[in-house]
Amino acid sequence: MTPDFERELGASRVVRDSSRLERFSVDESGLGRFPPECAVLCESRDEVELVLRLCQEHRIPVTPRGAGSGMTGGALPVRGGVVLSTEKMTRIKEINSDDLFAVVEPGVLTGDLQTAVEAAGLFYPPDPASLAICSLGGNVAENAGGPRAFKYGVTREYVLGLNFSLAGGESMFAGCRTPKGVTGYDVVGALVGSEGTFAVVTEMILKLLPAPPAVATLLAVFPDARIAGQAVSKVIQLGSRPRALELLDRATIEHLRGRTPYRLPENAGALLIVEIDGEPEGVGPAIERAGQACEKSGAVEVVLAQNESERRRLWETRRLANPTLKAACRRKIAEDIVVPRSQIAAMLDRVDQISAETKVACATYGHAGDGNLHINLMLDDEQLTPQVDQAMDSIMRATLDLGGTLAGEHGTGLLKMKYLPWEQSPPLLRLQRKLKKVFDPEDLLNPGKIIPND
Ligand SMILES: Cc1cc2nc3c(=O)[nH]c(=O)nc-3n(C[C@H](O)[C@H](O)[C@H](O)COP(=O)(O)OP(=O)(O)OC[C@H]3O[C@@H](n4cnc5c(N)ncnc54)[C@H](O)[C@@H]3O)c2cc1C
Questions:
Q1: How far is the CA of 64 from the centre of ligand 1 (A)?
Q2: CATH, domain 92-210, list 3.90.380.10, 3.30.565.10, 3.30.465.10, 3.40.47.10
Q3: Residue nearest to ligand 1 atom 28, measured at CA
Q4: d(C-alpha 46, C-alpha 51), whole Å
Q5: Domain ranges, ordered by start, for the chain
Q6: What is the pLDDT of residues 227-253, one digit of tens each?
Q7: Model-wide pTM > 0.85
Q8: What kind of fold does domain 5-85 have according to CATH?
Q9: For ligand 1, atom 14: residue with the closest CA
Q10: Which residues have any ligand 1 atom within 6 Å of their CB?
């Protein structure tokens, strides 16, 4: 039985009705329904502390939840109990143009922060494709990435300081408000990417940059992914590091045909989007050199956006990839593996083989600059069959064989937990179990995630 949160916070902030609890039972992972006993919509740090204190007193598990857009089941309350939602903690408390940081609550949507900082002539680089629907608390908990990570890095690089509350409700601040700071252990580093298993983040100090004055984008069409992969290396060797280098494979292109503002040529076997930012006088020549490198590598078409609306049109092709693939099957499982950039073409070959062997259709797109590929398993059925398990297992094995890692930006959550021992050694897993115990000795915060039991 969960505590009487209604008495403490008012009935409007507690959800117990099963139909209204439905949305707190699922996320974007497609891993199924895990209904909590209740969801509590906190509005402040005090309320987070209260919920955590009451849950500890009653020994009830608590699953923190941002916007529920996670792809690995991190926000699913697999042991029931309470979902602690931060969706009402949406204040942007400060945008500091002198010292280049923002102070935000965890429920702020990533896109809303970006709009606010851009209005101040500033730039917050992390740009998960889900930025219109995901929260900054979720981004910090997952160490989210996005297309611009190739040049600017992932969320961790923009978290200067965190206010957070432990299970039981004790709160503290770690980090700083300055661009540098190395006192003590890197507790902020431990919390970023901890997927709500160590603490609930209640406020974040995020680093900002001056906005780049100019941006240029091109889309190049290749006969196949191997040639596109070679073009990626050539573009990088030119020296102006692109801020994004995105790849779409043949299967994704076929699903997108007729749906994008850019007309996809018949012979398109792979697409590359290259984006470069910087000073206006440097960006124009740099994107032209990138276009020439694509042509020399074998591109059959190169489209250079001439203005902002054309730039947005080219990106629309990439943005439509996820919803289009999702609509094309009964259930989609999105993998998030990373391989060394030089192994992208080999990985795509392995995916084709695995798909042919298991009869599980796959479509792949992703951040080619980082070697981070979203391999989408497109299922005709809601149920996972042995063939789907075999396809997932083979994709994980192939990733590790090629020198890669099993998750680039979506976290481990529930989806990847089984595979962690394939990548990490028993001593490393034991060390991480001990780390979890330091933060959460009674295993009340988001239990049943990331590290499998011994
Ligand atoms: C269409 C689509 C595209 C996507 N593209 C990208 C992409 O490009 N890059 C990328 O990195 N991800 C991407 N994602 C995945 C997802 O959007 C990110 O993982 C995002 O960071 C999750 O944020 P959220 O607010 O939805 O978190 P949720 O799904 O609510 O939670 C995710 C995890 O964070 C924890 N958590 C949430 N808030 C807190 C808090 N305040 N304190 C402690 N723990 C907390 C939860 O317990 C859970 O473990 C995509 C998802 C979709 C649906």
A1: 11
A2: 3.30.465.10
A3: 68
A4: 9
A5: 5-85, 92-210, 214-322, 329-422
A6: 998 899 899 999 889 999 999 999 999
A7: yes
A8: 3.30.43
A9: 130
A10: 27-28, 63-71, 74-75, 86, 106, 128-130, 134-135, 137-139, 141-142, 144-146, 195-196, 200-201, 322, 409-410, 446
